[in-house]
Write a structure and sequence with these properties.
Structural class: alpha/beta
Largest sheet: 6 strands, mixed
Shape: globular
Distance between the termini: 82 Å
Number of strands: 11
Order of helices and strands: HHEHEHEHEEHEHEHEHEHEHHEHH
């Protein structure tokens, strides 16, 4: 029996050693000569598009094989994310969003689950600011309890379920802080669209993350320094303070939203507003992407963000401080944000309906809200 066991063991050893060894993933061979489609839901000309095009022109050299990138703008964001969600995880499609991916999952058209995307990393600072255009208010506190002048905001608001999260965000602030706000509906959104509507006089408040805040001095030089555009409210996530940009330095004088909300409002704000949007410019891959490809992307981003020339280029073309969050940390953030948001998801449906009735249908509120 002992001799038989030794014989079988030797036979199996010889058999296994004769099998071809599993080939290691050759990153350079895989990406060499390939073209990667870089997708965004943002329109051309805005802060996200500018950063994405900088990446498309300069990121390839940090990949083994030096693949080329082509850019596809596919607004609106939720449609672009749906498209990427259904793509093969072959590493030839990558998406850059303008904020947290969970923001779009709140919309009825969303076909994806935020936590199941593969996260490469998040690029840039996370300052988030509400700005006013040609308004007399020094900051948002001056507008509280007033009737005029109105804060006019336009966004994609076709229904309560499909209302853009930033529209809900401003409606909640208007309701809670007693602001003289008016809302209108447009078919598409983005920095370039908002700029056009502001210059036409149809819109005088706009909110945005780091891409928009740090991009203002480049998109419209002098607007902030001359006082035509003013930061009304610091909405940087989880109590963090906004950073100064090239034309506005007195950020300490801008009130933070946390200082104006009561305990119940702050809890809802954290779950429904901050958790879905608490990213800057996340890079994601389709859910079926292998770890080999994901790790190649993460290494390429790490090498690029540790390269002084690449980092200074980000600051030069966008004005955004070239900070970043690695993909493994970002994936954990995505899971936790989704958990927090899900806890209040049913209450969000009621709030969306109430805000839509008050500001679009102009009906009396039908649900109770924390005040």
């Amino acid at each position: 029996m002992k001799r038989y066991t030794i014989f079988v063991t030797c036979f199996l050893f010889l058999l296994l050693s004769s099998l071809p060894a599993a080939k290691a993933f050759d990153v350079e061979k895989y990406f060499k000569g390939k073209t990667i489609r870089f997708v965004t839901g943002s329109r051309p000309g805005g802060g996200t598009d500018i950063l994405l095009r900088y990446f498309a022109s300069n990121w390839g050299k940090f990949f083994p094989g030096n693949p080329r990138f082509v850019v596809s703008n596919m607004p609106p964001h939720v449609s672009a994310l749906n498209w990427v969600w259904h793509k093969k995880g072959d590493g030839l499609t990558v998406f850059m969003h303008s904020t947290g991916v969970l923001r779009e999952q709140a919309l009825a058209q969303a076909e994806f689950k935020t936590s199941q995307f593969k996260y490469v990393g998040d690029v840039g600072d996370r300052s988030t600011v509400l700005t006013g255009y040609n308004l007399p208010y020094k900051d948002i506190r001056d507008a509280m309890g007033k009737n005029e002048p109105k804060l006019r905001y336009l966004d994609m608001i076709p229904s309560p379920a499909d209302m853009h999260p930033q529209a809900l965000q401003l409606m909640l602030l208007a309701d809670w802080l007693d602001l003289p706000a008016e809302f209108g509906v447009i078919a598409e959104r983005g920095t370039s669209t908002f700029l056009l509507e502001m210059e036409r006089g149809n819109m005088n408040v706009v909110m945005g993350g780091a891409g928009r805040w740090f991009g203002w001095p480049k998109l419209r030089p002098g607007w902030l320094s001359e006082g035509k555009l003013k930061p009304l409210l610091d909405m940087t996530y989880f109590g963090r303070k906004m950073l100064p940009n090239a034309e506005f330095k007195d950020v300490e004088k801008v009130p933070h939203v946390y200082t104006l909300l009561n305990k119940d409002q702050k809890e809802l704000w954290t779950a429904l507003i901050e958790a879905p949007q608490a990213m800057n410019k996340p890079l994601v891959l389709p859910p079926g992407t292998s770890n080999d490809i994901l790790n190649a992307y993460r290494k390429a981003l790490e090498d690029a963000m540790n390269n002084e020339q690449f980092r200074s280029g980000i600051k030069r073309v966008t004005g955004i401080p070239p900070t970043w969050v690695p993909g493994d940390e970002l994936a954990k953030e995505a899971v936790e944000s989704e958990r927090l948001w899900a806890k209040y998801r049913e209450q969000e449906k009621d709030l969306r309906g109430a805000m839509y009735d008050k500001y679009i249908r102009k009906l009396s509120p039908q649900v109770s809200r924390p005040r």
